[in-house]
Design a protein that fits this description.
The structure holds two protein chains of two kinds. Helix content of chain A is about 65%, strand content about 5%. In chain A, strands 1-2 form a two-stranded antiparallel sheet. In chain A, β1 and β2 form a beta hairpin. Chain A is globular and about 65 Å long. By secondary structure, chain B is an alpha/beta fold. A six-stranded mixed sheet of chain B has the order 6-7-8-3-9-10, with helices on both faces. In chain B, a hairpin with a 2-residue loop joins β9 and β10. In chain B, α3 crosses α4 and α5 packs parallel to α6. The longest helix of chain B has 17 residues. Chain B is globular. Chain B starts with a strand and ends with a helix. Classes of the chains: A mainly alpha, B alpha/beta. Chains A and B meet through α8 and α10 of A and α2, α3, α4 and α5 of B.
Chain lengths: ~280, ~280
């Protein structure tokens, strides 16, 4: 039952989006999100939305998977809408009843905020988690963040922690399954009772799991030491990430389109400029 | 001598030595099995050969290098690699070939050579086809062979294995032992193998039996296992074949005390029976 849990929701594939250099995907995602929050008005959003629809189509993950990714944030979207609709001042009043006033600014604000969040989530899913394996993502993060080493941010160590965490998820899940079976065979009951009783029933699983995790950590540390691990200094890498010609083209095109979106934001006359 | 201890002493807690003045010399290319009941100090001894533990008394030399010299630490660990009991707790990466690359990556081996070393190590242990698999999808024996490949990729002259077969099923055990024997035979790698399975010690060139932090017996498998009573007094058993031969001998029947492996013993008995019938 615990084996069904997947983390990061990676859909292996062979599309052009899958093959993109993960560092490029990371950078483009950040640029895209920046553009999303810089732009106002319909034209930039048509461009930005268009890019995303193209990316989703190219990734071959399927639009259904992508929209499914929006489900968990539905509540957030609803709350954002309500707050923006009721708490924006200024503009023309379209509806007023006792203390509730709705202005056209509010409606515009709400609409764009929801659009931004939805596009942001879809962009991160298609470009990053759905199409990049967790290990590639970790590598990319380490590489992109490596300039931060100069200001003493332990980038390599953080990436190593992520790798080890990813490596041990299946091992620890298996172990949890085993411990649960062992406790059940002695009559432990995890399924009945109220919330507090159920939480209490988890203690006999968590304690052995923690003890074992610490023991594993110690053994792993020894094994890593035996293999001359000494932090990131002077380390080489088996898999070298290399910018292919394709990646340069994609980078160039994305930069051009994003620039266009931001530019159109300033020149566009029929968009409503909001504070 | 690739490995040498001089009066090696070690105590985890003061006043209670785990190792009591060991003098062991192991020449290059030897396959050594280390036996002993729990708490006899065999794992502690092994951890001295790649400077995971440093002696509290005496000296340990790996290829003439003093393990207490911190500047030589990586040199020593490259020379003598170590494999542990639980394969799950020594695999670092989420893809097998990346795990094999972990050691040489730490040593800063540059890329065309790094790739060559990883591929070669994976081929040596017979796991090349599994290079892009996730380790948790492999069987225990396969994982342990990946762990061995991770050590071989560092090009050591000696491998110390601490009960590498204890958690494996019979097939996994045989695969791992075959791999170890092959490394010893074909690559002339010195092997130190701690084991609880007496049968595994039969393949070694030399058996060292430890007891209470001292060397109780040291010799070829035949010499060691011939001392059935002594072994039993040390809390160890002898392989069934050896026991069989000794029982035959004590009953006044023909016996070959050198026929320690199952195959040799079976051949010997078959020959005797044929003689009787024929």
């Amino acid at each position: 039952m615990l084996k069904d849990i997947t983390l990061g929701q990676f859909f292996p594939g062979n599309s052009i989006i899958h093959k993109m250099d993960p560092r490029l995907k990371l950078v483009i995602t950040v640029l895209y999100i920046t553009a999303l929050f810089m732009c106002h008005g319909p034209v930039p959003y048509i461009i930005l939305g268009g890019i995303l629809i193209l990316a989703v189509a190219l990734s071959k993950v399927g639009f259904r998977q992508v929209t499914r990714g929006l489900k968990p944030i539905l509540i957030l979207l609803v709350i954002t809408t309500l707050f923006n609709v009721f708490y924006t001042n200024g503009g023309q009043v379209i509806f007023s009843w006792k203390f509730i006033t709705i202005t056209d600014y509010g409606v515009y604000n709400a609409f764009y905020m929801v659009l931004r969040i939805a596009l942001l989530i879809i962009a991160t899913f298609t470009l990053l988690t759905y199409t990049t394996s967790p290990i590639m993502l970790t590598d990319a993060l380490e590489s992109v963040l490596s300039p931060l080493k100069k200001i003493k941010v332990p980038v390599h160590e953080l990436a190593m922690m992520m790798t080890i965490a990813l490596r041990f998820i299946p091992t620890l899940l298996e172990e949890t399954d085993k411990i649960m079976s062992a406790q059940k065979s002695r009559g432990a009951d995890f399924e009945s009772g109220g919330l507090i009783r159920r939480a209490k029933a988890l203690i006999p699983i968590l304690i052995p799991l923690f003890i074992s995790a610490f023991r594993r950590a110690e053994e792993l540390a020894t094994a890593m030491e035996c293999r001359c691990y000494n932090g990131g200094e002077g380390r080489t890498k088996l898999r070298v990430m290399k910018f292919a010609m394709r990646d340069y083209v994609i980078l160039f095109v994305s930069l051009a389109v994003l620039a266009l979106a931001i530019y159109s934001d300033y020149t566009c006359t029929f968009g409503v400029i909001l504070p | 001598m690739i490995l040498k201890t001089e009066n090696l002493e070690y105590s985890y807690t003061e006043g209670k030595p785990t190792l009591k003045g060991l003098n062991i010399e192991i020449p290059e290319g030897q396959y050594v099995a280390i036996l002993g009941h729990n708490g006899s100090g065999k794992s502690t001894l092994l951890k001295h050969f790649n400077a995971i533990l440093l002696p509290t008394g005496g000296k340990v030399y790996v290829s003439g290098m003093d393990t207490s010299n911190e500047e030589l630490l990586f040199e020593i660990r490259t020379r003598c690699g170590m494999v542990f009991q639980n394969p799950d707790n020594q695999i670092v990466a989420t893809i097998t070939e990346e795990d094999v690359a972990f050691g040489p990556e730490n040593l800063g081996v540059p890329n065309p050579e790094l790739r060559a070393r990883v591929d070669e190590a994976l081929k040596t242990v017979g796991m090349y086809e599994f290079r892009s698999h996730a380790p948790h999808m492999l069987s225990g024996g396969q994982k342990q062979r990946i762990a061995i490949a991770g050590i071989i990729a560092m090009r050591p002259s000696c491998i110390a294995l601490d009960e590498p077969t204890a958690m494996l099923d019979p097939i996994g055990r045989r695969d791992v032992l075959d791999t170890i024997a092959k490394l010893n035979r074909e690559e002339n790698i010195t092997v130190l193998l701690i084991t609880h399975h007496m049968e595994e010690a039969l393949f070694a060139d030399r058996v060292i039996v430890m007891d209470e932090g001292t060397v109780a017996l040291d010799g070829t498998p035949c010499e060691i296992f011939a001392q059935v009573e002594k072994m039993e007094s040390l809390g160890l058993t002898v392989p069934n074949t050896v026991k069989l031969m000794h029982t035959l001998q004590s009953r006044g029947l023909p016996a070959d005390l050198n026929a320690v492996t199952t195959d040799k013993a079976a051949d010997f008995i078959a020959r005797i029976l044929e003689d009787k019938i024929g």
